[in-house]
Specification:
- The chain has about 425 residues and is α/β, with parallel strands linked by helices.
- It has helices at about 75-90, 90-110, 125-140, 160-170, 185-205, 220-230, 250-265, 270-280, 295-300, 325-335, 340-355, 380-385, and strands at about 5-10, 20-25, 25-30, 40, 45-50, 50-55, 110-120, 145-150, 175-180, 205-210, 240, 265-270, 305, 375, 390-395, 400-405.
- It folds into two domains: about 5-45 and about 365-405, Urease, subunit C, domain 1, CATH 2.30.40; about 50-355, Metal-dependent hydrolases (TIM Barrel).
- Bound molecules: zinc ion.
- Zinc ion binds near residues 58, 210, 241 and 309.
């Protein structure tokens, strides 16, 4: 289906519906009452929004929770330890098989852009990266996948990783990852960040790190990352994921860090599904949420997004279906979003905010842009989140990728 018109489409926040004309995969007209001989799809006044973006997930680790031992403490540290054994035995085809399932779930749920981390270390070598590169090839022309070379085991703590990171970039990783808090000392954490910047500059790539995924107010690598970004003038090219410890800082130190993040134009990604599970495990009561300061970051004008992060792995066993409306629902609870205005922002997070983070061009429902949109069975974004509404149609570049239909019957006397 190359040329078609979506009739009665409701764009976000609009009272009146419009028609959207698509020719050769591009949006060519948006107006009322488009006359056409091409095929038409009646959106029936439902929302038509750009397809979702998941800016943070781990396709190499996904869906392994059933074949590894149980995570008894539930902590991040044990999640990482359990993976060591499995990681040694990863194969490219195993990663492609598990990752394909997740990508297909994502497509059914209206997500067509993914940024996945791939572990790069001396345990699994470059197999996780090669697996995701293979996956990217398999889905080429269908969805977009960016790959982050992710030194989860540390760089100084795991000698040999720096060399592997450079090899990963040569093999085709799109983004330089990092995990600075997983070093033995604060000095090493700083060196870790310095090395990531060296590699990023060498290959002219963006940076996307896992930062301070911990409850301790002493986890402070975010400050160095912000300072380094400012010094290197890497404005807008650095992303910090998780940053749980930011919520453990005293308000004065937190305010200083937030103003530095703003100055550095760092993008933030919160991953509440995973972190609500992992953090606060050493707390008695009250158990802290372990979620970064979402509202304060947004209020400061910082670009904040959310990601699925984990799906049925050692970090997040049992859960996850690569649905950005589900992750949004969890984010809303974690961050206490209740007002209509806040829910609008919540919808920006896996759409326009993430497009900014991924530096996507031509994203959104506009004439001249690729026809990549979902028809969602809801009239408002509030309703979309509340019901995790059915993604009736999922189009990418004008191609119909998925259709969902839920039929419910209620028998009352
Ligand atoms: Zn992650």
């Amino acid at each position: 289906m190359k040329n078609f018109v979506v009739k009665n489409a409701r764009l976000r926040g609009q009272n009146k519906t419009v028609d959207i004309e698509v020719k050769d995969g591009i949006i060519t007209k948006i107006s009322k009452g488009i006359k056409t001989k091409a095929k038409t799809i009646d959106a029936q006044g439902n929302l038509v929004t750009p397809t979702f973006i998941d800016p943070h997930l781990h396709l190499d680790k996904a869906l392994i929770s059933e074949v590894v031992r149980e995570n008894k403490s539930g902590t991040l540290a044990e999640s990482i330890e359990i993976i060591w054994n499995k990681k040694k035995n990863y194969t490219i085809s195993d990663i492609v098989e598990r990752g394909s399932k997740v990508i297909k779930w994502g497509i059914l749920n209206g997500t067509t852009f993914f940024r996945s981390h791939a572990d790069v270390d001396t345990i699994g070598g470059l197999i996780p990266l090669k697996g995701i590169l293979e996956l990217k090839k398999k889905f080429e022309g269908i969805v977009d996948i960016q790959i982050v070379a992710f030194p989860q085991e540390g760089i100084l703590k795991d000698p040999g990783t720096e060399k592997l990171m450079r090899q990963a970039m040569k093999l085709g990783a799109d983004v330089v990852g990092g995990m600075p808090y997983n070093e033995y000392t604060d000095d090493d954490s700083k060196k870790h960040i310095d090395i990531c910047f060296e590699i990023a500059k060498e290959f002219d790539k963006d940076i996307d790190m896992h930062v301070d995924e911990d409850d301790s107010p002493n986890a402070r690598t975010l400050q160095y990352l912000a300072a380094k970004t400012i010094k290197e003038k890497y404005f807008g090219r650095v992303t910090a994921g998780h940053t749980c410890a930011l919520s453990a800082y005293d308000p004065y130190y937190a305010a200083k860090i937030i103003s530095m993040l703003k100055e550095a134009k760092i993008n933030m990604i919160t991953n509440p599904a995973t972190n609500l599970m992992l953090e606060g495990r050493r707390d008695l009561q009250p158990i802290r949420r372990g979620i970064t300061r979402i509202k304060e970051l947004l209020a400061a004008g910082i670009n904040v997004c959310y990601g699925q992060d984990c799906l049925k792995d050692t970090f997040y066993p049992t859960w996850g279906q690569e649905d950005m409306l589900e992750v949004g629902l969890i984010t809303a609870h974690a961050a206490q979003f209740t007002q209509p205005k806040e829910i609008e922002v919540l919808f920006d997070m896996p759409t326009v905010n993430s497009a900014k983070l991924l530096r996507l061009k031509n994203y959104g429902i506009k004439v001249g842009n690729p026809a990549s949109f979902n028809i969602i069975e809801a009239q408002t974004v509030q309703e979309a989140f509340r019901k995790r509404a059915t993604r009736l149609f999922v189009f990418k570049n004008g191609k119909l990728l998925a259709q969902n239909k839920v039929e419910s019957k209620l028998y009352l006397s």
